[in-house]
Amino acid sequence: MPGELFIVSTPIGNLKDITIRALEVLKAVDIIACEDTRTTSVLLKHYDIHKELISLNAVNEKTRIEILTDRIKAGTSIALVSDAGTPTISDPGVRLISKAISEKINVISIPGATALIAALTISGLPTDSFIFEGFIPQKKGRQKKLKELSQQERTVIFYESMHRIEKLLKELVDLIPERQIVVCRELTKKFEETWRGTPLELLDSLNQKNVKGEFVVLIAPLDWKKS
Q1: Cβ atoms < 10 Å from Cβ of 171
Q2: Is the dihedral of CA 128, 130, 132, 136 positive or negative?
Q3: Which of 74, 96, 109, 120 has the most CB atoms around its CB within 10 Å?
C-alpha cells in the first residue's frame, strides 16, 4: 500500500503552539521533509521525537520531489513541515504536493499556526475580506505593486524583512500617509510587538528602537475608518 503525505503546520515561534494531532503525526510518519533540518530538530528535540529528516527547500526542491514521491509510493509516510507555520505559505512545498496529487498520493492537511492569520486576528482591521501577498517585490515592480495594494477595498497582508521595513514605511508615508497600518513583529515570541497607526507614526516608533525579526504588515482597506 502507498504511504501518505501529511502537510503539518508547526509553531511560528512559541513551541507550545502545536496541535496534539500534529505531534501524533510527526511521531507516526517515517520521514519528515523540512526546510532546514537544524531548525526542525529543535522542535523535535523539544517533544522527544526522533525521525529521519530530509531537507526540502527552494534550492533542492526540484531534485527531491522524485525521491520523496517514489518513497511514498513504496509505502513510506512523509510529513512536510516548514521552518515555522503552515507549509507552502511563502515557503517551499507546492511542487511536491502537486506531484503527489498527480501520482494519486493521498495528501492530508494538519492545520495549525500561520503568521498572516495570527496578525489579522489582532490587527483590528476588517477580517471578512482580505488579500495575502506573501513578500512583495524587492526592486522591480515594487512601486507598482504597492500602488495596486493601496487601492484594495479589503485588508492587505504581506510579509517584510527587518532589512526593508523602514524603507517600506517611508514608501507608505509618500503613498498613503493617512491610512491605518498595522505591523506585527516576532509573533508569539518573547519580544512580540504590534504597532498600529499611520505610516509616519509607525516610522517614528520604529526609529526609536533597534528592531529585528520577522514582520507582518497589514494595510487597512481603501476608505475604511476606525470605529
Answers
A1: 17
A2: negative
A3: 96
In the chain, where the domains are located: 4-110, 115-219
pLDDT bracket for residue 227 (50, 70, 90): low
Q: Judge residue 174's burial from the number of C-beta atoms within 10 Å of its C-beta, 0-12 exposed, 13-18 middle, 19 or more buried.
A: exposed
Neighbours of 114 (CB within 10 A): 20
Model confidence over 190-210: pLDDT tens digits?
A: 989 999 999 999 998 887 777
CA distance 219 to 69: 40
d(CA 152, CA 145): 11
- pTM to 2 decimal places: 0.92
Q: What is the CATH number of domain 4-110?
A: 3.40.1010.10
Which run of H or E residues covers position 168? helix 165-175
Locus of grid cell 519580544: 191
CATH class of 115-219: alpha beta
d(CA 174, CA 154): 20
**86-130 pLDDT per residue, tens:** 999 999 999 999 999 999 999 999 999 999 999 999 999 999 999
List Cα–Cα distances, 19 to 6, 10, 22, 53, 86, in angstroms. 14, 8, 5, 20, 12
Share of the chain above pLDDT 90, in %: 89
Cell of 161: 524583512
Taking each helix axis from N to C terminus, what angle separates 142-150 and 165-175, rounded to the nearest 10 degrees?
60
Question: Rounded to an integer, what distance in angstroms lies between the CA atom of residue 176 and that of residue 151?
Answer: 10
